[in-house]
Design a protein that fits this description.
Elements: E1 11-16, E2 19-26, H1 30-38, H2 40-46, E3 53-59, E4 66-72, E5 78-89, E6 93-101, E7 108-118, E8 121-129, H3 133-143, H4 145-162, E9 166-172, H5 176-184, H6 186-192, E10 198-205, E11 212-219, E12 224-235, E13 239-247, E14 253-254, E15 265-275, E16 278-288, H7 292-300, H8 302-320
Antiparallel strand pairs: 1-2, 2-8, 3-4, 4-5, 5-6, 6-7, 7-8, 9-16, 10-11, 11-12, 12-13, 13-14, 13-15, 15-16
Helix pairs in contact: 1-2, 3-4, 5-6
């Protein structure tokens, strides 16, 4: 029997026919939340109720693949689990069959997890569908499924919070459509994008999801670097998401020239908000697929990033005055 679901709340857990449904609004971009569900380096940090730890035996996050893992309870009991993936639609949806082993061998259910962009972050909706209401009620009564799910979602929320993102905000005395064009047209990007003191040459610009912006940055002293965007989401004129990397002239990913532990890929999400005749830009950035050392280096670099991005945006201020 449907217990009622309020998707307008930031957090909600409810029962429906043969189902347990949980929804959460997470303060992180969809790509990062999806990565937290499909990368064992993330999953082992948050999966399971409070007090549990997780060890992966095997993982293949693809249709037909499996994630086999053991959850270690606070009392020392081990719980074997196997997740068999049916659908992996990055970064929108996961569908899988979840089965228990050993102490939880009677547990079997199907799961869909939907990831949706929403103001303020990512709306996650998780549906656990059981063979019957009796099977659902058994895991609630015997294994504390509702409380366990709430605790697991709370750990996910805390994990996403721990993945601190870099944020910079600037106000430009120019209409939003003009600021958008400056971010998405080659002739404009060449005039302001890049570190202060460098000249940017655009080699390629494919403004579409999956498309590449490839560019060369050269200083008067002869220093040269290549960089690239891989566009993820494009919603003119308000939102632009892309993965930023250092690269070679062919567009292949390379290490940053200034630090061996800088993340290879950084997700940037730029939002543009009209404020009268002005535009407020907010850039948020998170490392993707990073090691612990790379995440630490990224966080330690916030002060330098703040100075670098603001110097770049100073160049945009000057250029917008000429457009």
């Amino acid at each position: 029997m449907d217990a009622g679901i309020d998707l307008g709340k930031s957090e909600s857990t409810a029962l429906a026919d043969r189902e347990i449904i949980a929804t959460r609004l997470l303060d992180a971009p969809r790509d990062l939340v999806f990565a937290a569900w499909t990368d064992t380096a993330h999953l082992e940090q948050w999966w399971g109720p409070a007090g549990f730890t997780t060890t992966t035996r095997r993982a293949a996050f693809e249709p037909g693949g499996e994630w086999r893992f053991v959850m270690h309870g606070p009392d020392g009991t081990d719980y074997g689990n196997v997740i068999a993936f049916v659908e992996v639609d990055k970064p929108r949806r996961l569908a899988y069959r979840h089965g228990g082993e050993g102490a939880t061998k009677e547990i079997h259910f199907e799961v869909t997890v939907d990831f949706a962009d929403e103001a303020g972050g990512t709306r996650l909706t998780m549906r656990l569908r059981f063979p019957s209401n009796e099977a659902r009620d058994l895991v609630i009564a015997k294994h504390g499924a509702l409380e366990g799910l709430k605790e697991t979602m709370a750990r996910l929320r805390d994990h996403m919070t721990a993945l601190r993102g870099f944020v910079v905000t600037r106000t430009f005395e120019a209409p939003r459509e003009l600021v958008w064009r400056a971010h998405t047209e080659a002739e404009h990007l060449a005039r302001w994008w890049g570190p202060k003191g460098f000249e940017t040459t655009v080699a390629r610009l494919e403004l579409r999801p999956g498309g590449m912006f490839l560019y060369r940055m050269a200083s008067a002293g002869g220093q040269s670097m290549w960089g690239r965007f891989i566009f993820r989401d494009i919603a003119a004129p308000g939102r632009l998401a892309y993965v930023l990397s250092f690269s070679d002239e062919s567009g292949g990913i390379t290490r940053a020239p200034f630090h061996a532990d800088w993340p290879l890929e950084v997700l940037n999400v730029v939002t543009l908000e009209a404020r009268g005749a002005a535009t407020v830009l907010t850039l948020r950035a998170w490392p993707l697929g990073a090691t612990e050392a790379e995440r630490r280096t990224f966080t330690e670099g916030f002060k330098s990033m703040d100075g670098g991005f603001n110097a770049t945006y100073d160049q945009l201020v000057a250029y917008l005055g000429q457009m």
